Amino acid sequence: MFVTSLLPTRLLAATTGVALALAAMFTAETGHAQSPFSPAITVNEDVISHYELRQREEFLRLLGFPGDPVEVAREGLIADRLKQQVIESFDVEVPEEAVREAMAEFASRADLELDQFLQGLAQEGIAEETLRDFVRADIAWRDYIASRYRSRARPTDSEIDLALAAGGAAAGVR
């Protein structure tokens, strides 16, 4: 009698424990999925939130970027974070004026003033910061590459003379 009365109690306790553990796992997972600012992707300890991911997806969709907006947004944001991590180690600063100019240039491609373009984005549920982050990442990376490789891209007069001399000699041999 003792063993048979104890068995249902132990079984109930074990089943309840497993059920509670599973409920806690699914509740935690669901809780993260419901929060737009919870981490969607982590890139070397930098977080990309679900909100950023959805914003970039909608932005790309609106602009008609080729490919799957979900995949392109994901890859683009990861690339932006990786670039940002490199840039931070070299203290590249992007002036706010340069960002505004780039945003205006972006708007002009749609034959709109920046304010009109931003209103259009807002009507589609896309925040101004999405465009700002998109252009800032490009500007910062361009400036980083330019500063890092500028000396290699600008040959000295003697290097030009040497190249012309080498090209001149090689040009006669065919």
Spatial order of the strands forming the largest sheet: 1-2
Helix tally equals: 7
Unreliable stretches covering 5 or more consecutive residues: 1-32
Dominant shape: globular
Q: Considering DSSP H and I runs of 4 or more, what fraction of the residues is helical? A: over 70%
Report, as a whole number of angstroms, the end-to-end distance.
Answer: 105 Å
The level 1 CATH classification is Mainly Alpha
**CATH-defined topology:** Triger factor/SurA peptide-binding fold
State the CATH architecture.
Answer: Orthogonal Bundle
How many structural domains can be distinguished in the coordinates?
A: 1
CA radius of gyration: 28 Å
- Summarize the biggest pleated sheet: 2 strands, antiparallel
| Strands, count | 2
By CATH, the superfamily comes out as Porin chaperone SurA, peptide-binding domain
Task: Tell me, rounded to a whole number, the average pLDDT.
Answer: 81
Beta content comes to 5-15%
SSE order = HEEHHHHHH
